[in-house]
Amino acid sequence: MDARRFAAAGRCAGGHSPAAVRVRRVALPVRRAVAVVGLLLLALLAGCQRRAPSARDYLRDAWASYKPVYVAEPGYVLDRTRGDGEAISEGQGYALLRAAWMCDLPAFERTFRWVEANLRRPDGLYSWAWSARTGTLIDSNTATDGDQEIAFALILAAHAFARPEYEARARELLVAIRTHEAIEVPGGWFPAAGNWAVDERIVNLSYFLPYAYPDFARVDPDGAWDRVTDVGYALLERVLQQPGVVLPPDFIVVTRDGGIAPLPAHSTLGRDFSFDAMRLYFRVALDCALYPRPQACDGPLRADALVEMLRRDGAIYTRYATSGRPLGTDQSLSFYGGVLPLLAQQAPAYAAHLRAGKLALPDLATISDHPDRYYDLNWVWFGIAADEGLLVQADRLRCAASGAATAP
Fold it and tell me: Most buried of 5, 97, 240, 348 (most Cβ within 10 A)?
C-alpha cells in the first residue's frame, strides 16, 4: 500500500487530516467550531465511504459491468482469449449461476435460451465449444464441469424464480450426465472429464462440485449423488497422499479399482497444478460453508500449500508442479479469487491480506469492463461472493418480484 493509501486509511479510521488541524486553529466560538468540525468529519466520512464500496456493492456492480461486455445480445458468453472468440459450456454455466444468485431473470432466460438452441445435443448434454466468428460448433464433445454448472444453475433458478420447468430440465441433464459421462468405481461412480474421456477414465478433479450434489440428489434421487461426494473426496485424498504431492493436478486417470494413475503418454492434458485444479479450493470451501461435513472442513485439501506459496513467493503463480515447485511466475487474479474462500476458513489472516491487496475492491472495479479478463472476472466474483456468504443452496434462494434477493 503506498503512502497516499496509508493517509486515506488513517483519515477514514479517524486520524487527523491537515484540514482538521487548521479548523482547530480558527478563532470561532466553541459551538460554531464544534459544528464546523462535525460537518467536516461527516463529509470526510462520506468521502471514505464512496472510496470504499461494500463487497455486496462490488458484486452487484461487477455483474452489471460484465453483462454488456461478455454476454452478447443473443445470450452467448464470449471468451476472447480463446481462438477468434469462443463460447464454451463452462462460461454459459458461470453466467447462469451468477444470474440466478443475483436474481437476474432476464439475463438467465436469455443465456439459457441460447444454450438450449445452440449447444444442446441429442443425448441431453451440451457441446462444449462454439465459434462466435462462424456461428457454428467447434467441438460437439462435452465438458462435465459445464454440464454440472448448468444443471446446478437450473435448480437454483427453479427456486429463485419459481420456474419448475427449469428443475425438470435439470433432471434430464443429470440423468444424461450419469448415463454418458460417468465412470464406475468401487462403491459408486464419478464424472469423467467428458463423454470423450470415459473410455480412458480421465478425470478432472476440479469438475467435482460437492456443494451441488445434495440438490442433485433431491432432483435425481436415482443418481446416487451422495456416493459421488464420497468418491470425490476419497480420490482427492489419494492424490494428495502420494509421496511428494502437495497440490492436485489438473487431470488424472482413475483405475477400475479406484486408484490413481498417470495420464496416457500421448495425452496433451495438464499434469500440473494450474487453471483447472485451483478451482478445487473454491469447491471444497463452498461445500464446507453450505454443508459443514468433515470431508470438506477437515478433509485432505488444506491451506498449507497455499500459505507456503504466499510466504515463499509473495504470490500464487499460475502453474506449479504437484510438488509445489513453481513452473513460471505469471499471475492471474482468478487464482486469488479461487483460493480465497478456503483461506478464509483455514488461514484467515492470509485471506484478509488478499482482500486488502490483490483483491482490493477499488482496484477490481477498474477491470470490471475489460474485454479480455473473462476467467479473472468470473473467479474473483465467485471467490468474493462465497466469502461474503452470498452463494446459497437452492432452497434458501428466493427472489422478489423486483429482482432483488430475499436470501443472503
Answer: 97
